[in-house]
Design a protein that fits this description.
Layout lengths: L1 E9 L5 H16 L7 E6 L11 E7 L2 H9 L1 H13 E10 L6
Antiparallel strand pairs: 1-3, 1-4, 2-3
Helix pairs in contact: 1-3
Length: 103
């Protein structure tokens, strides 16, 4: 399984409540349309601390590298990426391979 973790920092001037609403209600509408996606999770910090380097972590899961590449090359994947860029001042994407060590 291939997982993509994105570390997200909200745009300057955006409140945590606004960011949380975007992350839990608006952005998922785009994320759900990405072809080949197996799981999509979003985690947003509980406390508003502007000094934190990131405010959220998203997780996308795909069966394999080919599915990941096709997903983000698709119009739906491109739209989700553009939406993230529009709402985040900084985004770090970690492309990982999951190995379950303790089932």
């Amino acid at each position: 399984m291939v997982k993509v973790f994105s570390l997200l920092k909200r745009k300057e001037g955006m409140s945590l409540d606004e960011f949380r609403h975007w992350a839990f209600h608006e952005h998922p509408e785009l994320g759900k349309r990405i072809p080949g996606i197996m799981h999509y999770r979003m985690n947003v910090v509980l406390d508003d601390n502007p000094d934190l380097p990131f405010d959220a972590v998203s997780e996308f899961c795909f069966a394999d590298m080919a599915a990941y590449q096709a997903a983000f090359a698709s119009p739906e994947g491109q739209a989700a990426g553009a939406d993230a860029i529009a709402h985040c001042s900084h985004r770090v994407r970690l492309l990982t391979e999951e190995k379950i060590l303790i089932p």
